[in-house]
Amino acid sequence: METTRDLDRVVWSKLAANCAINALTALTGRTNGELLEDEAALGTLREAAREVGAVAAARGTPLGEDAAAIAEDVARATARNHSSMKQDLERGTPTEIDFLNGAVVEAGRRLSVPTPVNERLWRGVREREGRPVPTDPTEAA
Questions:
Q1: Does residue 134 surpass a pLDDT of 60?
Q2: Cα torsion through 34, 35, 37, 40, rounded to 10
Q3: Burial of 91 (0-12, 13-18, 19+ CB in 10 A)
Q4: 3-state SS assignment for residue 17
Q5: Which of 34, 88, 136, 140 is the most exposed place for a label (fewest CB within 10 A)?
Q6: How far is CA 30 from the centre of its chain?
Q7: Closest CA to 96 of 108, 107, 104, 88
Q8: First vs last C-alpha separation in the chain
Q9: Marked catalytic residue, from 14, 65, 94, 114
């Protein structure tokens, strides 16, 4: 078992991977690993993760490595997985999109860090869920 005193960095690294992978698999219907095989999906994955890394850095929690590399490593390690968000969307149950990509968008706005890819993913999943898409993610929760 590994322990760390840098919990914020670990949490934000996990958030970078989850934001980059989960919404994208939900919207495309792909497994985690299939995202790495498509140039457009991979580009979106990288951009979403890097936005999370930028928000983390702006709040004083630099990840210490490229957020895109973190997300790609997780997608590769879990290549056969169907994300929980993809499964929720398929079942018609609410997803955690507001607490992942929506939270990053909201934090980005507070810190003046642009998060257009995370916002697009947040809006896309909410639309697929059939839920209203508020102007501000803080209105969503």
A1: yes
A2: 140
A3: exposed
A4: helix
A5: 136
A6: 15
A7: 88
A8: 34
A9: 14
Token digits for 47? Answer: 């951009």
pLDDT tens figures, 99-120: 999 999 999 999 999 999 999 9
- Superfamily per CATH, domain 7-139: N-(1-d-carboxylethyl)-l-norvaline Dehydrogenase; domain 2 (1.10.1040.10)
**Burial class of residue 69 in the structure, from the number of CB atoms within 10 Å of its CB (0-12 exposed, 13-18 middle, 19+ buried):** middle
Residues 31-53 pLDDT 10s:
999 999 999 999 999 999 999 99
Contact (CB, 8 A) for 80 and 20: no
Contacts of residues 131-134 at CB distance under 8 Å and 24 or more positions apart, as own/partner, are: 131/94
Residue 86 appears among annotated catalytic residues: no
140: DSSP letter: T
Length of the chain: 141
Given this model, what pLDDT does residue 138 score?
Answer: 67
